[in-house]
What we know:
Elements: H1 3-17, H2 22-33, H3 37-51, H4 58-72, H5 74-96, H6 189-202, E1 204-210, H7 216-227, E2 233-235, H8 246-251, E3 258-262, H9 276-284, E4 288-294, H10 295-303, E5 318-320, H11 326-333, H12 338-346, H13 352-368, H14 376-391, H15 400-407, H16 411-416, H17 422-430, E6 440-442, E7 449-451, H18 453-461, H19 470-479, H20 483-501, H21 505-517, H22 521-533, H23 537-549, H24 553-565, H25 569-592, H26 596-609
Helix pairs in contact: 1-4, 1-5, 2-5, 3-4, 4-5, 6-7, 12-18, 13-18, 14-15, 14-17, 14-18, 19-20, 19-21, 20-21, 21-22, 22-23, 23-24, 23-25, 24-25, 25-26
Amino acid sequence: xxxxxxxxxxxxxxxxxxxxxxxxxxxSEALRGARNTFLEVRFDDLWGIRLRGEDTGTPSAVHELLxxxxxxxxxxYEELQxxxxxxxxxxxxxxxxxxxxxAHAPSGPSxxxxxxxxxxxxxxxxxxxxxxxxxxxxxxxAQPPHSTLPPVADWPQxxxxxxxxxxxxxxxxxxGESPLPPYVERDCDRELGDRVREAAREGGLVVVTGAPLSxxxxxxxxxxxxKLPGTTRVFAPSPGTDLRGLPAVVRGRGEAGCVLWxxxxxxxxxxxxxxxxxxxxxxxxxxxVLATMEDEAYDARRFGAADRARVLDGARPVELNxxxxxxxCGLLEKAEEPxxxxxxxxxGPHTVPEYLAVGPDLVEEWRRAARPTRHxxxxxxxxxxxxxxxxxxxxxxxxxxxxxxxxELYPDAYAAAEAESFGDGLAWAAEQRYGVSGLLxxxxxxxxxxxFGALLADxxxxxxxxxxxxxxxxxxxxxxxxxxxxxxxxxxxxxxLVERAEEDPMAAAVLGDxxxxxxxLETAEFWCRKAADAGHTEAAxxxxxxxxxxxxxxxxIPYLEQAAEAGIVQSQFSLGLLLIDxxxxxxxxxxxxxxxxxARVLPRLHAVTYTPPDTVKE
Length: 618
């Protein structure tokens, strides 16, 4: 026997052998709290053997009993220890005063009867009254009374209960969005619904198990709402609530239907939680119990030897898969609600519940990180990746080099982020949260980055969100390498900028530059002229060159003049050539018409503007 158990066994043996029944009664009450009939009977047997004067072999018998208590009801074992310590202290105090209770006489400091009375006939704490005391006085505290539980009439009704307050994870809340998106059916719904309906009729425990963030609580809640009347009263106690008095509360419910909701069942197990005795009484009262539990926690409490929960013995779980099946994903494809559409488009390698559950927290953390005392560089890097994705740059194209170039296109934020290094900001942004994802996630190629999809979806869907910096569009176009990606950037640019370009010449100029780069010269000229007409100098130069290229010199001259007068050298040169060609053309016509001076000037004009052919070969 180990020292602790041996000491406790010897003390319990003395308690059993003592004529003072107070400590024995407290221990007997504690063992009843374990809800283990075998332990109660065995302890009472030891007491009965002692009363009959038989040899109990008590220490070894008690030792075996205590091993079982410690294994099956650790909190009761601790209570027995406390009672034994109090008993030992009382023994020591008696010995210090030279007083020892007679071996077969009622214990106590005096054998003279003492009258007892309690004012008003009630008391709310231990009361000791005697004529005189010798030795120490010790009060043994019994098990505290069951915690007060609210009556069924005070429980919320199912049709008015807040699922988020009862454990369902809240998704993002944009203006006009409901707290929860429409529920997408899962493959286990039929089985779960049948089990809930049966439990509502007969009573019983229904447990939904699954991996973390697999959607257990939302699935269980959907079954509850679908299968029970809206007037059903829902009791959702906090973890650790003493449930031993719950059957008594339920017996006073009248005709009201009710359900016990235990999200994360592990927090409601133990000697004072959902025990086999409490569950059996709830079944007798035909009260359904709907619970959720993570797979590993269920396996540990169902099959583990150290802390096994017998209440799970008769509960066959409904298992929820973390990865969605083809049929479940097919249902998601039909969903048009913005949040579910975002999950369909942007969840990447993550499951739908992971996307919906973790996304709001990641978005909130990112938005708050811009403060100088948090992670302004990390916030900026995430924003740059989000905006590059909005432009059309895929994950595999955003390297650290691309990030370093992109962040400089946010001059104000870049200046404010100088206190944090690029490496520190990137490390913070990539750190995994909740065992699911970082704000930035590794891209398709080594050394590249993407962003957790919910951040991109939130930016796109949020009203009044920031625009992509105009300079980033051409940067994005130069970043991608394939024709398909380049045309994607062009398409996204038109989606984002066309409306803005009607009022903003800078946006119109960007559209012109992008279309020039992709060879759509007609569209490019349209946007360059629009920007130039609004005073954009560089766009005027581009428009003039495009018109010259299609032999529209007369149209080009005003735009080239606008740019040339603003100091753009290339426009000055192009305008000069254009004007020389026009001068020669008109001089030829004058000479042909017989103008004498034109005929003399024309040869010299040709000589001045003659450019010898380039005969140098590379």
